[in-house]
Amino acid sequence: MENITEFIRQLNGIVSGPILLPLLAGAGLFLTIGLRLTTLRRIPYAFRMLWDGRKKTDQTGDISPFNALMTAMSATVGTGNIAGVATAIFFGGPGALFWMWLVALLGMGTAFAEASLAVRFREKDALGNMIGGPMYYIRKGLGEKWKWLAFSFALFGMTAGFGIGNTVQSNSVADALNHSFGIHPVITGIVTAILVGLVLLGGIRRIGDVAGKLVPIMATAYIASGLVILGLYWQEIPSAIMTIVESAFTPVSAAGGFAGATVWGAIRFGIARGIFSNEAGMGSSPIAHATATTDSPARQGTIAMLGVFLDTIVICSMTGLVIVVTGAWQSGKNGAAMSAVAFESALPQFGQYVVSIGLVLFAFTTLIGWSFYSEKCTQYLFGVKAIKPFRLIWVLLIPVGTLPNIELGSLWLVADTLNALMAIPNLIGLFLLSPVVFKIAHYWKKVDATKKEEKFKKEAEPIQ
């Protein structure tokens, strides 16, 4: 067992560092420049499209564009938004938050590319449901000679879900409820499995409905709590932002329980945790966006960009700013414990429950979101006959993550490695299919032309 763990650790050191991070950052930069920075300029338009996409239409697809985004966000908004941000700050200092922001802005271009390709190359399965994602746009967009790359993504995506999307999440739920309310972890595991099972019985439509209601509520509640704290510490906000920016480019000395950090540490952990949080480039979220009721790949791609923006620029920033303004980053605590210190110091007798309940809800939605991702990868490999057995195995494995003899460190190691392995085929596909992405983005020129025409007609109308 030790030999296997050591092998995975060495593999992780290769694929997660020297290979993955440059690929992810490079893809984001390449696509953002290739899209002429329109991903950044289209954020207000994306919010309008999101609002318009709340209702399901008679267009092709299974769930509304809004619910497709919420399903994607149900998987991305998770422990990374609470524990991941704190871990980045613990190892990289406050400056890590700056690099999280930067990688998110670049990741919006990647998210647009993934989602638009997913809709462009999606197809109907034997059950009449829409399916898509990297395995489909790699195979259909690049041709049969690239089937091996599509197969690789599906294989790693199927297995990665059981780590990052299943046992790791159930462990986080159990730990949070045990710490705050004294609930036995195994009980939590069993109840969680039952609840997830009830959701999965309804397939993507029920997953979309649950995500469409739960994700906005939990995100709004968490952000509201953070805003209350920032309101209490409003005088510290300017200096906190200065600390974040300065720490991104200068080393941070040890202070209090903080061990100090180099500039490289801020860059490395900021980028790594940012990517882990919003999953841009990982290839997971386009599987959800492929099910949206839309006839426009570019329109759904524009909506998909908001997943990255809301996850990192909004929710992760809330966690990071609270940690910095309260001084919790110097507490010596790491992960969710640091976030708990920050919220509890500002909201005594209440703050720790914000973090605990937030972790529980975020992890639960990740369980249902990632179940869909892994299911579609399994379906690609084995056909629709594998759906029911997959769902059964998924639900049965949830309590395993809560068992006392489970080594969480090993779970995270395997999960991170598999995540990296599934991202690499997807990123190769995005680079090779970038001409298709840029062609799809011509949609925005048509939108601008239509706006100009409407404005001209309005100005030409005679005054009554």
From TrEMBL:
It is found in: Cell inner membrane; Cell membrane. GO terms for cellular component: plasma membrane. Its main location: membrane. GO terms for molecular function: amino acid:sodium symporter activity. Signal peptide: none annotated. It is a multi-pass membrane protein. The chain crosses the membrane at residues 19-39, 66-92, 98-119, 148-169, 181-202, 214-234, 240-267, 308-330, 350-373, 393-414, 420-441. Gene3D superfamilies: Amino acid/polyamine transporter I. Coiled coil: none annotated. The keyword Membrane applies. The keyword Repeat does not apply. Keywords: Cell inner membrane, Cell membrane, Membrane, Symport, Transmembrane, Transmembrane helix, Transport. Belongs to the alanine or glycine:cation symporter (AGCS) (TC 2.A.25) family. NCBIfam families: agcS (TIGR00835). This is Amino acid carrier protein.
